[in-house]
Amino acid sequence: MKTLYISDLDGTLLTPDACLSERSTQLLQQLSAEGVLFSCATARSIVSVRSILSRVQMPMPVVLMNGVCIYDMHARQYQHYETIGVQTALQVTEILEQMQVPAFLYTIEGQGLGCFHHRLDDPVMEAYRAARPQRFDRPFTQVDSLTQAVSDRTIYITMVDQKDRIQKIRDAVAPLPGLQYAFYKDVYDRDSWYLELCGAGASKRQAVDYLRHAYGFAHIIGFGDNLNDLSLFAGCDECYAVANARDEVKAAATGVIGSNLEDAVPEWILEHYYHNQKG
User: Fold this and answer.
1) d(CA 220, CA 207)
2) What pTM, to 2 d.p., does this model score?
3) Quick one: DSSP state of residue 41?
4) How far is Cα 176 from Cα 154, in angstroms, rounded to an integer?
5) d(CA 14, CA 48)
6) What value does the CA radius of gyration of the chain take, rounded to a whole number of Å?
7) Distance between CA atoms of 162 and 94, rounded to whole angstroms?
8) 214, pLDDT greater than 50
9) Cα separations (Å) of 235 from 206, 208, 210?
10) Contacts of 97 (CB under 8 A, 6+ apart)
């Protein structure tokens, strides 16, 4: 039975320091050598994913930005992506400017990403911007108004702030047509929440469905920890929450495994694979 194992990154496969441990790296290398098909489904973009997984062979495309993009790491190209309609994106940026909430807007530019922002007087958002070029060589472009960055290639709008402030934005944009969102707590900062907006055709579940049909998988097993992984679980035949997952994620899971401090995901995959091989 052709099986895909697919894991969230932050809080699931990665350590609390947002790194892939040496043990997990070795296990994933071993799985790859055995021909096990593994992928990830993350809110991250390819820039950081490529850096984090640089020592791991990834024969399968990866799911990025909560399902917005499917990227082939070998061909170094986007295999599939979903856009936000121009009028909807313009409405979002107008709401953000009216409510004076800073955000980042992403577009597809060839085989790269365009990353735009307006003002960044919020320390959390400034820290978000400052960390990424330093760690992952991702350039950001400041514009006078975020509406200037909207195009027919707009794929993602994201912001991070305290829950009550972000919740007001979520309530304001939720009725807009052709739009969906992921609203979840930052696993690295207990006081911050993310709101990530994308086209209605984009989700971790829909990305998993795409991989299932494009590659003929009979069985897909997923791993996650946070609220945005509920969509991933919905697309899988089996789903497992790590021990450090939110209660809502554990409740939706087939089972609960060890934590992200214990290399639980690759350990579980290896045991499951060898058990099935012997069976």
Assistant:
1) 12
2) 0.86
3) B
4) 16
5) 13
6) 18
7) 21
8) yes
9) 7, 6, 10
10) 118, 145, 146, 147
